[in-house]
Every structure is written in structure tokens, then in C-alpha cells.
Amino acid sequence: MNVPYDSAVYFVNKKYSSLQVQTFQNSNAPYLGNAEENFSYLNFGPENSRRLRALPAWFSLMAYGRSGFRWIVENNIALAREFGDRLEAETCFKLAAPVRLNIVCFTTRDEDFRKERLQKMLNRLNERGKLFLSPTLYKGTFCLRAALVNWRTSTNDIDIAIQELQGLS
User: Which domain holds residue 128?
Assistant: First the structure.
């Protein structure tokens, strides 16, 4: 949702408030008072003392709405598929897994010294700063992983990624 990772929203039905009290009650904080007499959802979350992390999520929901988030997800999936197709057509890389959503896992076609070669490529790519990939293991194969999640990602970014990968191979 283009918000900080620790931003979260949770919904609890009133009839389950006693379970929430049992689960998240901080018995070491007597200043919170008796939970049954003075119940407050603010005091019964995974953390008892926190900033308003839900605010960024609320702002994003108000700014983009359902159709905006649908577009972001669909755009990132389409770009991931384009990236996967172009990787196989234009580079020495091959897909390690089908591109189903926004994640592209790929490796070299050359199986000799794959892990060492990919790790060196990954280090050089990330040092250059135009493309950020992470390592992963897929079905026992060391791979590079691209996760497309930014609402500003475009076909131009796919072009840059392909150029960077071609420059390293």
C-alpha cells in the first residue's frame, strides 16, 4: 500500500474484546488500569506504546482508493511479466519460476558456477544503484529476485533493468 512496513490496521469485533485483552494485555503496566473496567483498544495491540502507524495506511486508502490500488497491483504484475519475457529474450538469464504476480526469479542459463557468478553480479548491480535485486533460493537453485511494488515503476525502468543486466553478463 506504499506505506511503511510497520503500518498496520487490525479490526476486532466487539464480541472478541475479551480475547484481545487476554492476548495483548501488558501486565507489567499498572498505569493502564483494569482492562475490564476501562477498556481501550489503544492499550491492547501487539505493542502498547506506539505512534499512530495506521495513519499512513488511512492516507493511502483515501488518496488512491480501490481503483488506485487495483491499478498499482495490475501495473506491477504486467511490468513483472514484461521483465520476465525480456529477460529470456534479450539476456543470458532465464526464469527460475513462472511470473505469476509481481515477483521475478531468474538465474543464468550457464549452470557452471551459477551461485558464485550470480552473487558477484548481484553485488555489482546493487553497488551501482540503478537496480536493486535480492538473492533467493528457489527449488534448490540460487536465483536473483526482482519484486516490483512501486507505483512509479514504468516500462522505462524495465529498459534500465535490462540494460544493467546486459552490461554485467
Answer: 65-168
